[in-house]
Amino acid sequence: MNRLSRWQLRLLGWLQALLYSLLKTRLIGPAQQQSATGGTLRVYALLYPSLAETLVIDREVQTLDWTGPLDDNSPLNQAGLQPFFHVYRRSGSPFRKAGKPVICKALKTLAEWQLAHPDRDLEVIPVRVFWGRGPEKEGSFLRIWLQNSGTLGGRIFTLMAILFNGRNTFVHISRPVSMQRLAQDTRTPTRLARKTALLLRIHFRLVSATVIGPDLSHRRTLISQIPNRPLVQAAIEQAMQERSLTLPQARQKALKYADEIASNISYTTVRFMDVLLSWVWNTLYDGVQVSHIDPLKTAARDNEIIYVPCHRSHIDYLLLSYVLYHNGLQIPQIAAGINLNLPVAGSILRRSGAFFMRRSFRDNPLYAAVFDEYLHSIFTRGYAAEYFVEGGRSRTGRTLQPKAGMLAMTLRSYLRDARKPILFMPVYLGYEKVFEAGSYQQELKGKKKRKESLLGVITTLKSFRRNFGKVQVNFGEPIYLTEFLNQQQPDWREQDYQANHYRPDWARPVVDKLARRIVTGINQATSVNPINLVAMALLTSPREAMEEAALIQRLENWAALIVQQPLSSRTQVTQGNAAEWLQHAETLGSIQRQSHSMGDLIYADDRQAIALTYYRNNVLHLLAIPSVLSCLLMHRQPLPPEQLRSLIQTLYPYLQAELFLPWSTTQLDTVIDGWLATLCDANYLECSDNHYCAVDDREASYTELTALAKLMMPTLERDYLALALLRQRRSGTLTAEQLEQQCSLIAQRVSLLHGLNAPEFFDATLFRTLVSQLLDQGILSQQAHNVLAFDDALVALTEQLEQALDGSVRHSILRCI
């Protein structure tokens, strides 16, 4: 193709225009930020020779501001080199999958040129063009027509692939490979060409696994194999003894369980869902904002990825798959509750990658063995997976206490076969409005959870007339299982796990630590949207109302605090300014405006205020430490930093257990000092004679300090209520369950008497978390009949907590007990 004549260039341009009348392309792969300099020599490596692919690549690379490889004036053509080469030759048979590795003439020429010009670098860009992205099924005739992997057929089959899947074409452009570096210690062109081709073949296999995933075994084949696995066979024998079943009956039950569980990914359904969800995100929502996904694209080539997102809405399942698909990553196998296996909807979810699991199968060893084996099959075959460590959806907006069941099964699978590393990817999903907000409020007030049904799905269609704002998907810091096990259990590789069915004694505490590490990683990847900020700012004001100018100032101040002291490098705050955020919240119906000649007032009515608590709770952990500091200092009593650190250190285990804060106790003093400096810089605090105190209460910033304190005040009040109730009932009189129930009832009464528009204030699960942490810290102990006992340590903790509470609040709580 070097030095193309004018008529050849004109013909190729015409063919390219014709081709793009049939195509709709998406550029995927690692981000290419830098543009090539004038003298950069870039060549493009293909899997197979293909005129259609060269035309697509020529068009797509120009979107990166690179010189098109077919441009007659490109540096490559000036050097007399071919811009494209391939590393496989087609087998010649349309029914034979594997191609033949080759060292093509163009690659040999490039190798000769590189060795002849050691001072210059040839950048080899591996490129894959996917005409559709359906994983191949073994023995499926459709693979011939779809040609997803580029391994089949010639011009006719490429044409068929373009006609069938041209509107769904993905172009994966990888980072450059330096042939100059490969040429080091290489003396002959033949050796350099072979080294380059081998590297590219390995790379292309990894790209294929990352973008498409492994070949799909036929679902019936996979299901039929499960009863033959040793662990399932042992469970079958146990079922025969305990349930008096015959061998055929027990095997049939295992097959039935496997059929109930297994997904059945359909490329046709995936394409349908892609079109449908593209419409949803641009109709119901104002699009999807994705952050920090590029590092994942690189990690996905060498690791088994398990996505562990927070769970806020039923639409989470679809959202993450949509984002991954559009960013060139394989669709995961998703663990979904059996309650979602509804008529029609369940079938669509199963064909979109969902596999279904019962809520509890502790008393069904055969089902547990089948599910374990299915999960093991997913991991060992290289499929990405997704499950929610919180178990169910969060009704309060907080990240829930993790349930470690799926993580335990993942660990057992890894102990059986640790050949491919496992990477857990925490994902934060942030909504400006959730579908289920109304039902969540009702459930928190005591209404029974409504059972999922097809009618319920249909009734949600009326939501399409409303605007739900934007959605944020933020990928957190990856957690590598091998590295985690090496830290927690250094000798884990040396042990034999078969005797205990891969359930070692150390597994449970390690899995519990892993679960907490994951949910902490989710919170570290928080993406703060305008509704989060408005909710935090407005709900700390009396009657949930503020002057517009004051509210704008508070929004800007608190957004700046989060930016200055972020929870992690993955924490993000929305772009724009406070006036725009306020207008956006008003457009979504989250707040209201009252016009006034002296300045407009912004307020939330009772319904809106309760709804806003959900979005405040999404991000409450970001300002937890400065809020508790404000609680301690708002009374204007000067305190030395040592005393402040000591008080925070005492309260921190309970805050960390509820909000999944990331710092260890050894890191906490540095965090506290950082926040004290930031609050002083913001003019919330003053420091004199090495003592900190609040600014003068006549200053406007004192009002902001007291508002900041109100963020965590309900949490501290709830903790104080539980401790005060224990002291009043005396040691050895209440069980944990009785304490949770009584605390919830009293908190509900306090909420009604004092007008707290926060249903989670009396959420029993939060009291359960507190009791669990008090037991872990040794403040409480369990005696006979599970009654709770305590000593003076609880009294001391209560007295320290009192220092953060207003006296009137303490008396109000004590009157209600």
UniProtKB/TrEMBL annotation:
<dbReference type="Pfam" id="PF01553">
    <property type="entry name" value="Acyltransferase"/>
</dbReference>
<dbReference type="InterPro" id="IPR002123">
    <property type="entry name" value="Plipid/glycerol_acylTrfase"/>
</dbReference>
<comment type="similarity">
    <text>Belongs to the GPAT/DAPAT family.</text>
</comment>
<dbReference type="InterPro" id="IPR045520">
    <property type="entry name" value="GPAT/DHAPAT_C"/>
</dbReference>
<keyword id="KW-0594">Phospholipid biosynthesis</keyword>
<comment type="pathway">
    <text>Phospholipid metabolism; CDP-diacylglycerol biosynthesis; CDP-diacylglycerol from sn-glycerol 3-phosphate: step 1/3.</text>
</comment>
<dbReference type="InterPro" id="IPR022284">
    <property type="entry name" value="GPAT/DHAPAT"/>
</dbReference>
<feature type="domain" description="Phospholipid/glycerol acyltransferase">
    <location>
        <begin position="305"/>
        <end position="432"/>
    </location>
</feature>
<dbReference type="InterPro" id="IPR041728">
    <property type="entry name" value="GPAT/DHAPAT_LPLAT"/>
</dbReference>
<dbReference type="GO" id="GO:0004366">
    <property type="term" value="F:glycerol-3-phosphate O-acyltransferase activity"/>
</dbReference>
<keyword id="KW-0472">Membrane</keyword>
<dbReference type="InterPro" id="IPR028354">
    <property type="entry name" value="GPAT_PlsB"/>
</dbReference>
<keyword id="KW-0444">Lipid biosynthesis</keyword>
<comment type="pathway">
    <text>Lipid metabolism.</text>
</comment>
<keyword id="KW-0443">Lipid metabolism</keyword>
<dbReference type="Pfam" id="PF19277">
    <property type="entry name" value="GPAT_C"/>
</dbReference>
<keyword id="KW-1003">Cell membrane</keyword>
<feature type="short sequence motif" description="HXXXXD motif">
    <location>
        <begin position="310"/>
        <end position="315"/>
    </location>
</feature>
<protein>
    <recommendedName>
        <fullName>Glycerol-3-phosphate acyltransferase</fullName>
        <ecNumber>2.3.1.15</ecNumber>
    </recommendedName>
</protein>
<keyword id="KW-1208">Phospholipid metabolism</keyword>
<keyword id="KW-0808">Transferase</keyword>
<keyword id="KW-0012">Acyltransferase</keyword>
